[in-house]
Write a structure and sequence with these properties.
Layout (H helix, E strand, L loop, with lengths): L1 H18 L4 E4 L19 H8 L4 H4 L3 E4 L2 E4 L5 E3 L4 E4 L5 E4 L6 H8 L4 E3 L5 E3 L2 E3 L12 E2 L4 E3 L2 E3 L15 E3 L7 E3 L2 E6 L5 E5 L6 E3 L2 E6 L5 E5 L7 E3 L2 E5 L1 E3 L7 E16 L2 E3 L2 E4 L9 E11 L2 E3 L2 E2 L16 E3 L2 E2 L5 E2 L2 E2 L6 E2 L9 E3 L43 E4 L19 H8 L11 E4 L2 E4 L5 E3 L4 E4 L6 E4 L20 E3 L5 E3 L2 E3 L4 E2 L7 E2 L4 E3 L2 E7 L8 E3 L6 E3 L2 E7 L6 E3 L7 E3 L2 E7 L6 E5 L4 E4 L2 E3 L2 E3 L10 E4 L4 E4 L2 E3 L2 E3 L6 H9 L1 E4 L3 E3 L2 E3 L2 E2 L12 E3 L2 E2 L9 E2 L6 E4 L4 E6 L50
Parallel strand pairs: 1-2, 2-5, 3-6, 4-7, 5-8, 6-9, 8-11, 9-12, 10-13, 11-14, 12-15, 13-16, 14-17, 15-18, 16-19, 17-20, 18-21, 19-23, 20-23, 21-24, 22-25, 23-26, 24-27, 25-28, 26-29, 27-30, 29-31, 30-32, 35-36, 36-39, 37-40, 38-41, 39-42, 40-43, 42-46, 43-47, 44-47, 45-48, 46-49, 47-50, ...
Antiparallel strand pairs: 33-34, 69-70
Amino acid sequence: MKRLQCASVLFLMLFHSVCLAATDYYVAADGNDENSGLSATEAKATIAAAYTAMTNGTVEATAGNRLIVGEGEFEFPAFPLVLTNGQSIVGSDGAVATLKLRTGIEQSEAIEYYSAGMFVLTTADTALKNLTVHFNNIPLKLNGALLKNPKGKVIGCTFTGYTNPVYNAMHGCNMVYVGDATCAPEIRNCRFTKGKNPHIGYTICVDAAASVLIDSCSFTDFTGGHSMGSIGVRNDKSATVIRNCLFARCDIDWSNNNAARAQVIYTPDRANAVIIDNCTIADCTAYGWSKDGAANDLQPIHGQATVRNTLIYNIRKNDGTPLQYETGNGRSKKYSHCASDRVLDGTDNILLGEDALLLDFSDKDDYVVLSGATIDAGAVLDWMDETSVDIRNSTRMAGLAPDIGCFELKARPKVFYVMADGDDDKDGLSAETAKATIAGAYEALTNDAPNTENADSIIVGDGEFDLTGYTMKFVGRQKMSSRNGPEKTKLNVPSHIVEGTKTDRTGATYQLFDFADSKVEFRGFTVDFRKKSYSYVNSALAKDPQGRISNCVFENYSSARIESAYVVSIYAAVAPVFSNCVFRNIHCHYRSSAFRVDNAYAAPVLTHCTFQDIDCGDYYSYGTVHVNSGSLTLRNCLFLRCRNHQDMHSGKYRSATIHANGQTVIENCSLIDCRFQGEAYESEAGKEWAALSGPIIKGGTVLNTLVYGCTNQFGEIVSCKTGPTYSHVASDAPLGGESNILLAEGSLKFRKPWKGDYTVQSGPTVNAGMELDWMSGATDLLGRPRVIGGTPDIGCFEFDPSEIKGTTIVVR
């Protein structure tokens, strides 16, 4: 009888557990709200419908249910998503699942819907995983707009497009707010990016004696506007732990407050329980108010938290000078085994000299230190063991001790130095034993078999050095950089490469470089082609380059009278990024361009680049930049005095400063004083050519761009042509299209055009652009914030009234 009773009880327990098994509900871009939502093929179409189905029933019946979001963008419902008893919302494996606030949502609606937070995690076993949440740049006057008093876990999510109200509109607007001491949320492997934190707002605010873990998260590209910072722990009993986190390009701004106090991380002035371990704070800008000493209250880390193994690097005022953050109203900070370019209080800290670290910039959020005093220099902390990882999930202790900062260098790469007083017979592994030539260092670099993890580097000191005379190929994560930038280090095409030479010493087509991997970096050089008529077929600098080419000057190139000779050409599905580069004094002849894209649909990018004194033609040319097919993004670029010359008696060979196609995107660029001329200009064919040619032609999308002073050889204004879509474009020739501006003669006042600074300091282009998604935390061509005032300026320069000394400026 007892056995029968036990069997009955066991059966009932099993029956109960089966009946209450957790259920997955799916939402997909091609779903239908009439579907059951119980499988990927029967998915719902909206978050609202899938969530309603997931939570339809008793607390016990819906416990552990999951809402699985597929690839695509979905509107956030007009109610909070409340999770309890093990429920979770997750992005499906490998998908970019985006929940986005509805465009045009009213403030009253936001307060009604989300006063308790967009997500409400009521128990410790609830979770958000692998989601992207886009706030759509909608100001939410809410404290805890995303999460308010969460108790669960947030893992692997991205939060972007967040903005708080403007100054004085609302105090205490935090994206995540913890004001309940019973909360112990975990926020891990999340990205908080491209947002605004105006007035007394934090990205994450802990306002109670709660234990919060913030682990392996990144906070990047946040603009200030009276912001209190990225993380604020305002209760000295809070046992918050901030670990393995990156804070990069986060503005700290308190420029209009009489008690100036702003920081990247805030902790109380008095002794507190906050622990900050293995974080990196870099490239942040402090905007302080004008009272004497006030800037000392702008701090990377405020208060008396325990700070260990943390890297603080390149924190500057908005005028570019270093922030004196080693002081600040006498507050002591408990730093140990930290590294900074300013003196830190505490023990076993490292003072970094200028250029003390070789950083990996293959990705703008990749602050891995490849070489420097921070490697293996941290303390072994209580949470570290053989399973510990860094922010990118790499083993935390690759060496005998952890690295300082949130990144751990996986392999110890070699760094080969080249110095003017070097010796090729030495090993090149230090500045003291440097090589004398580029060839000597490159041969040492390539001595090992190439592989995708190779992160060896070449660092070149001040002076002029000849290149090798054969194509230098870089693979894996290899780098080549100068110590002090293009003004100090010049690379010359070697003198034994004579005019007319098409091949290198092996007989192969000669390009200077082969950047063969997406992680390769080339940075900080002037490359001088010496104005010889080199007939490098297709591409003199590089063909189909990958990786990141930054902070370089490429000058004095002259192709021979040969068809299809370019400085750079892209014919493959590669997506290099050229940033802060200058192409100048370049002469491209027959059917040639300075930069050519053909069949490259992987979206290469040119950002913050200058094309200056480019001469394309002598027979006919396609233009300074020519996108024949494929895609290209041009952003914050200047085209100055670019000449297109046409002597071919056929109108079909049109040319342009930018010869675009349908996939070309041109944003916040300036085309100034470009010229179109030719011997055939007055013939019938020449008139046909003139009608088709102009500053921008053929196709693509053109936004926030200035076209000014572009003329033909008779001084007549040449207009951009139909084909591209123009919006918020200012030109001195009529355009048509949405929100475009026709500029009258003399309507623009440039700041210092003789120095290449074509910032418009008065004129209709100031504050006349449209704000774009990438602008949060971005800069103009000169490194100033991209948006100063309510909206961006048109063109590649942003006017900052504070730069005008001794003048009364009407604030925009």
